[in-house]
Each structure stands twice: as C-alpha cells, then as structure tokens.
Amino acid sequence: MFSENFKIIILALGILVSSGDIFSEEVGYRWRYFNAPEASNKEVLGLALEAVRKPLGYAEKINEKIFAFSEKLENYIRDWLDGKADAEFPPGFFSEWIDNKKTHDWRLVNYDKIDPQEQWYVLPAYDPSRELHQFSPDPSGTYLRVIFLAPLDSKLKIEGDFPHCRFMDYQIILPLDPLHPQEAMCEVPLVDIDIEPDPGHTNPFRVGADRNAQNRHYHVEFDLQAGNALSLNPEAMISPAYRAPGNTRTGGPFQLTSFKGGNVLVPAVLWLRYYAPDKEAGPLGGVPLPKVHLELPSGEKFWITCDKSRMVELQTSTVRRISETPPQEPYPFIGPSLGWFKMYDIMFAHMEARGYYKSEPWGKSDLGQSKKRVRRSFRLLFNRGADANPPGNYETGPTCNNYNSYLVRPMSLGEDKVIVLTGKLPRFPHTRNGELVMVDGDVRFFSITHQLGTNSEYNKGYHGI
Questions:
Q1: What does each C-alpha distance from 193 to 154, 190, 226 come to in angstroms?
Q2: Which of 60, 201, 268, 358 is the most exposed place for a label (fewest CB within 10 A)?
Q3: What's the whole-model pTM score?
Q4: Closest to 350 (Cα-Cα) out of 419, 403, 413, 397
Q5: What angle in degrees, to the nearest 10, is found between the helix axes of 41-53 and 55-81?
Q6: For the chain, which residues score pLDDT lower than 50?
C-alpha cells in the first residue's frame, strides 16, 4: 500500500467551528446520558476552590458519599438474591440524578434473563447522503453504550464475537476518584489487538490474522473500584500508547460528576466502538451484540437495568431539519498560517478557540493572557491540564477515544467560496470489502468530519477511510 495525494473540496454556504456556544444547554442535555444539577458559576467555583484548598478533606467527604451509596446498593442486591426484596427498586431509593426521565424504573435482572438487545443502545454507522445523525461522532463508526450501576469491587463481564470492521475498542469510565471526577476525565481503554481470543478462536485485528475466521469469540472483564486510574491500570493508562496485555481493566461502578455537574453520583457507562464496518457486515460488523453481566465480589451474577427510552430517543434520533448557516467571511485570525490544533479535550478546544478570536489583534484581550486564563480555568474547573496529576494531564477527554489523535481547525465560508484541503494520505489497511487478511499501516483508520454553525441541529459529516 502506498500513500496517495488527496484533495478535498467542501462546498457549503458557511461552516464555523469556534465558540463554546456549540455546547448550549439544550445540546448538553440531549448529549449527556444522565441528569445533573444546574449549578451556578458561584456554586461551581465554590466546589473547585474547596478541592484546591483542602484536597484531603474534600476527598474524604466525597468518598463517604461514594462508599455509603455502594453499601446501600450492595445490601439491596443481596436481599433480592435472598428473596427478601423486589426486583424493582423502591421509589426514592435512588437520587433524582439516577432516577429521572432519562433513566427510571431501575430493576434487577437474573443472569439467565439478560437480553443484550435491552442492554445496549446503538449510534450506528450510516450514510450521511441519506440521513443525518446529531450525536454520532463520525458517520463511519458505530458507537454502542451500556448504562449500569454496581457496588464497589464488583466485576463487569462481557462475552462476544470480534466484529468485521477496521477497529474496535472498549472504554469504561475511570475508577471512582474525588480528585479526578469521571465526567471530566479520559476513560480506561481496552483495544482490539490486545484482547486474547477464546482458545481455538481468532483475533482478526492482529496483523496477518484471518479477518473472516468463523471462530472469533472473546471474554473481557472490568473490575469496578475506587482509586486512581493510573495506579489501578498501571500499563493500560500510560499515555500515549494506552496498551497492556490481557483482557482485564479497572473502571468505575457508577460515576461522579465534575464541579460543573455538582459532584453528584450518576450511572456508569461503557463504550464499545466499531470503526469502518465491512460494507457487507452492516453497522454491527456482522456479529450479535455482546452479552454483559455483573458479579458481586462473592461471585453472584446479576444485571441492573432501567427504562432508558427517553435517553435513547434523544441521542439516536435522526435530524429532522438542517438550518441554513448564512455565508460568513473568515474571522481575521482564520488565515492560511493558522494551522491545526491538537485537541486536548472537546470543551478545551472550544475554550481555546473563543480565547483566540477575543484576543488581539482581533479582540481586546492580550493573547498571552488569554492562553493563561483558559489553562487556569480548565485546570480549576476540571482538574485537567499539563500540570495536573495523572490522569488529569492526559490528552483525551471524556467520550474521546484514547487511540485517536484529534486535530481541529476553525473555518468559515464567505458567499460562493469553497474550502480546499490538500495533503498526503497515511497508509492504512483496506478492509471495507471484506479483505481476507489484516495488514499493517501507518494508521488503522482516519476520517475528516465537520461541525456546522450553532444554528444547525446537525454537526457531523463526511466519511472516514
């Protein structure tokens, strides 16, 4: 395989990626799978300053809440297993941040009654020329998610078949850590190539492997604990490779929101990504959905589920309309010498872009001071940045893929203008047509997407390769 020169021309009335306005309250509500308090700036700042000034006391207070909830949940599960409690959790058992319009009617399920179709919800790969999806980060990828709750020291176990696609990985929220709330941090990854298949089965993602092998089953598990993610995943959380042998990682049994989310407890999430499914395999890569279950520390198997139909509707519905973004000449700072930003975090990228166009010579602020202010704010509000302790100093943010490098650039279009991108393609394995053998390359997968302006419901487009 040799690289090819490429030239992409984007035709549109106008494209603008710039400010934090993209994450409006409505968009944030639709995107998040949980509810969180609408904290004021004063309340958010108060929590952040408390954590900075008295970190040990702050962590102790949050840990008390974490361990109390875990004990309460485990006691109820054990009562249910002993026939002393109903499968349906009683009203008021969970807070409004767990039991609400998005996720409600929580109940326990016996292991032999688990239905993967009920466990997962899917943002499928799709053809953007036929339909548009608001919250699929890339139309060439299928994003599967499981929402769950469990006591500390439980295990989340999964069995499934390797899909027919270019890339696959699992990612779970971090172990519970008051100083590194999972809503604001990266996730714990487990990439396809590191997963050992079951005996007699094939991992089709390894170079030289039979991509179409019939026997392709695997088992993986996640220990659900509290603590620092790096300490609990000493190899898999080493940036930038995020690689470790074996089928076990350590994540969180439920989630702690950031200062901005009021430091409340909400359900946990597990991501499963299928990039570039084979054309004939469909969005799910031609394999059944994996089966997931939970186990208590003493080994009892179960599952906890809820009615999540409203959340799934918000996140998986197609876009009904596209609002026109009016033509707009580029801001003065968007010139040929601007280059690309290496994205540290989605929110940070928007903060950074806003800082640029509000700085001299385009705005009133000093550019150097703006950069410092953005970094200080990000560090204070999310405990993230180059000078934060791991994993706060890690590159990727929540919902991002640890194995991706994200480059972003603001751009806009005047009337009757086009945007032209030129460059050189990296070498990548060809798999879309069901090729028989996995080969090597500079990258496994890459894509180019765009976001429309803030007046549009739709923000993604263009296929990956």
A1: 26, 9, 27
A2: 60
A3: 0.89
A4: 397
A5: 100
A6: 1-24, 454-456, 458-463
